[in-house]
Amino acid sequence: MHHQEGTFKGVGKLELYYQSWYPEGKVRGILAIVHGLGAHSDRYDNVIQHLIPKQYALYSFDLRGHGRSPGQQGYINRWSEFRQDLQAFLELIKTQQPQIPIFLLGHSLGSVIVLDYALRCPQEASRLQGVITLAPALGKVGVSKTRLLIGKQLSRVWPRFTLNTGLDLSAGSRDEKILAAYAQDSLRHTRGSARLATEFFATVDWVNAHAADWQLPLLILHGGADRVTLPEGGKIFYQQVSCPDKLRIEYPGAYHELQSDLNYQQVMTDLENWLERYLPTQTAQLGGETANLEFPGS
Q1: Which helix (H) or strand (E) holds 153?
Q2: Exposure of 190 by Cβ count < 10 A (0-12 exposed, 13-18 middle, 19+ buried)?
Q3: CATH classification number, 2-278, choose in 3.40.50.1820, 3.40.50.300, 3.10.290.10, 3.40.1110.10
Q4: CA nearest 241: which of 165, 80, 131?
Q5: Which secondary structure element, helix H or strand E, spans residue 21, and what is its range?
Q6: Hey, where are the domains in the chain?
Q7: Which helix (H) or strand (E) holds 179?
């Protein structure tokens, strides 16, 4: 496996950190990952380890104010910064690896970023093979009503005011080793600003209101015991999507970090099976010129 790191310019020419992983030989498809609030691009090792042997390449980047990317922790001026950063990231991938089919995956907050992008930029999104959401934050979230109220009231007068989100670390996974690693993760943060809160909920409302406009193959994976982003929100969104190319799987007893929970192997198998279903025939057979990929810098 090859691994590369770099930066690309987001909104306001902010240098955002990204990394990519490649298998040896031909690549059949690319999975681009958008992480959740307070997380970063290092949090998807099980996805990488499962898909690399299947001849997929993976890309992920740290959102502004997260991980190794600059910016105030948990703050944005407006939601369009997330959307335009993601668009710049996808353009980077297409520039590095033209003709390779791309799938887009969002986790938690990242799911809202991904869904918003696909709905607001349908022409650009039509070039994607499909969209996957892990634990989409489309309904109630595990943040107290008091913190949400404070955020709403301060967004206009003190948008950069930041609070600890109060999200329960133990709600992430049933695997104690994973929880211990998260607790020691120096790149992880638990901050959320007043402006981010209002922008987030306004975007969730907009995404839900436009669910019927969805046109891409869609996979929603959610833990039935998720206390961070309750599964009911994703279920309602799924029911409102009229596009027939959709699938939702809920895992009884599973927590928020599906890619790192006790049942992650089943989740990875379901993800792989879905990717295979929507992978173009010419790349699925590892034939043709579109399956050829050169490792950047080689």
Answers
A1: helix 145-154
A2: middle
A3: 3.40.50.1820
A4: 131
A5: strand 15-22
A6: 2-278
A7: helix 176-183
Residue 94: CB atoms within 10 A of its CB come to 14
Spell out the residues 6+ positions from residue 75 whose beta carbon is closer than 8 angstroms to its own: 65, 159, 160, 162, 193, 195, 196
Query: How far separated are the first and last CA of the chain, in Å rounded?
Result: 13
Q: State which amino acid sits at residue 84.
A: Q
Place of tokens 């959740």: 36
pTM of the complete model: 0.88
- Consecutive sets of 10 residues in the chain, 298 residues long: mean pLDDT of each? 97 97 95 96 97 98 97 92 98 96 97 98 96 92 56 54 66 94 90 85 94 98 95 96 97 96 98 96 46 37
Cα separation, 216 vs 130, whole angstroms: 6
Cα–Cα distance for residue pair 139/229, rounded to 1 Å: 7
Could you give the CA distance from residue 270 to residue 265 in angstroms, rounded to a whole number?
A: 9
**How many angstroms separate the most distant Cα atoms in the chain?**
58
Identify the DSSP state of 181: H
- Position 294 scores a pLDDT of 36
Q: Residues 81, 11: contact at Cβ < 8 Å? A: yes
